[in-house]
């Protein structure tokens, strides 16, 4: 049965989600994309790639028997991702997991609801990925990692084996994390950072090797 689906947000990640769904449908028609929801009032009544912007996030409850997927989340608002999705007042089971056909995801791993895995991502064995995570192209999630809810993992990142990543973490483009480390919740790992020691909650780290720049927020 084809599922109706709506994408939250209208930014680049959301458009890439549409592209991923289109690629899934090329193999087997699985989804009917109804359109987008976005809180930017200036976008209302417009369309993107032929799909209409149907309202704001709070309008999600109007769409019965419809699934959703979230594309909102960047280095500027990643720690608000839970709150942003909460505006929909939807239960977790209303969110669909989207995995691009070119991604390699081990059958021995678990992917949460509402999570998006983009092109050429590798998810190795024994990995547990939470709900509402987005993993951008060419990232590597090595064996036995635990990735918390609401994380954003940017393109080309590499998380070595047996790491624990808290909730609402942003890992920047081409960042690397050494094996057996813990990165706390609401952290930002900067672009190209090389993390060789544990990172405490609510911390921004940058550089090679990574060092503490500041708190994520006061």
What does this structure look like?
An eight-stranded mixed β-sheet has the order 6-9-12-15-18-21-23-24, covered by helices on one side. It has two domains: 3-94, 3-Layer(aba) Sandwich (Rossmann fold), CATH 3.40.50.20; 98-210, UDP N-Acetylglucosamine Acyltransferase, domain 1. It has helices at 12-27, 81-86; strands at 3-8, 31-37, 47-48, 51-52, 67-70, 98-99, 104-105, 110-111, 116-117, 122-123, 128-129, 134-135, 140-141, 146-147, 152-153, 158-159, 164-165, 170-171, 176-177, 182-183, 188-189, 194-195, 203-206, 211-215. Helix content is 10%, strand content 29%. It has 218 residues and is mainly beta. A hairpin with a 2-residue loop joins β3 (47-48) and β4 (51-52). The N and C termini lie far apart (48 Å).
Index terms:
218 residues; UDP N-Acetylglucosamine Acyltransferase, domain 1; eight-stranded mixed sheet; 2 helices; six-stranded parallel sheet; mainly beta
Brief sketch in words of this structure:
The chain folds into two domains: 3-94, Rossmann fold (3-Layer(aba) Sandwich); 98-210, UDP N-Acetylglucosamine Acyltransferase, domain 1. Helices cover 10% and strands 29% of the residues. The protein has helices spanning 12-27, 81-86; strands spanning 3-8, 31-37, 47-48, 51-52, 67-70, 98-99, 104-105, 110-111, 116-117, 122-123, 128-129, 134-135, 140-141, 146-147, 152-153, 158-159, 164-165, 170-171, 176-177, 182-183, 188-189, 194-195, 203-206, 211-215.
